[in-house]
């Protein structure tokens, strides 16, 4: 068994490398740590972002061709020309933020932090093996396109990884845990409940739901500045369809799981910082414009929904009870002046529907449009 004390000084990957042979099923050929390392090396340079970009462009071309056929039937020349122009308004290219080995490492780092919050950690090394392998492959399906990417994992493992992972049952378990990190199964977004609470694999107990919940929330936490493509942002390569994803990650400088010493629960602390000119800028996202602060509100509310969902499967191991958000908007004209926004997301009072908008959290929090007026009033914009 793995204990909490070990995790204070050791990464999950190092921990797996130190495991004794008897922690894993025997007579299976290659050692499990070697399998994991080969799997990670195989997908380290996998062109996930390029595949998603190619898929989005191909889908746009097909859709545009179909629309063009319909437009060609319009007799009025002015109306026809207007609709032709409209075909090329939306940016068809999806430029994903990092889905490479950098993101894999960050997900594994956040999984370790979640495990450190466990009050009674009893994870086995065999379960750790499944968790780390699932972290490696959870996004590789994006090579076929963003939509439904999690559904492609099993097929990729079976077609490309049988030499690395010869045991078909282990491949299935890895794919199931990884697939549950998002999307839906038969139209149901509750993907984790489709997994087994506990299953015997090669005479070893494996808790699929627990591992999937750790991976899913670790992935949610792994969206900080390390995930942005800073070079592409600086050189203005990223176009409107994807711009805000990278700006968001750049602004998120701290993601920390912190212990509340009063009630001994844990909370997620998210800290963002950007200047007032960025706050006043509308960024592209899937064909429309959006203020960064509104994107932060939307993403943190989503994280709170994910926390409430994953905690079902993390209890009683991990008392992760709230999310604290700190946004600092610095004055573009004076670095010593700033505009703070803070709020806490947690369950309180009589159970109700989760927050729909940021105003449900605190009616005094300003939306992007309201914030723009406030920053103008404070003289924080270069206009």
Provide an overview of this structure.
With 383 residues, the protein is of the alpha+beta class. It has three domains: 4-46 and 100-220, Hypothetical protein af1432; 48-86; 227-377, no CATH class. Helix content is 45%, strand content 15%. A four-stranded mixed sheet has the order 3-4-7-8. Helix 6 (101-116) packs antiparallel against helix 7, helix 6 (101-116) packs across helix 10 and helix 10 (208-221) packs antiparallel against helix 14 (292-314). It is globular, with a radius of gyration of 23 Å.
Annotation keywords:
single chain; about 375 residues; alpha+beta; Hypothetical protein af1432; 3 domains; two-stranded antiparallel sheet; 16 helices; about 15% strand
Q: How is this structure best summarized?
A:
By secondary structure, the protein is an alpha+beta fold. 45% of the residues lie in helices and 15% in strands. It has 16 helices and 8 strands.
The proportion of residues forming helix, as a percent range, comes to 40-55%
Give the termini separation. Answer: 60 Å
Q: Work out the radius of gyration.
A: 23 Å
The secondary-structure class comes to alpha+beta
Determine and state the CATH class of the largest domain: Mainly Alpha
List the strand order in the largest sheet: 3-4-7-8
The percentage of residues in β strands lies in: 5-15%
What is the CATH topology classification name of the largest domain? Answer: Hypothetical protein af1432
Contiguous low-pLDDT stretches (5 residues minimum) are none
CATH architecture of the largest domain: Orthogonal Bundle
Listing every helix as H and every strand as E from the N terminus to the C terminus, the arrangement reads HHHHHHHHHEEHHHEEHEEHEEHH
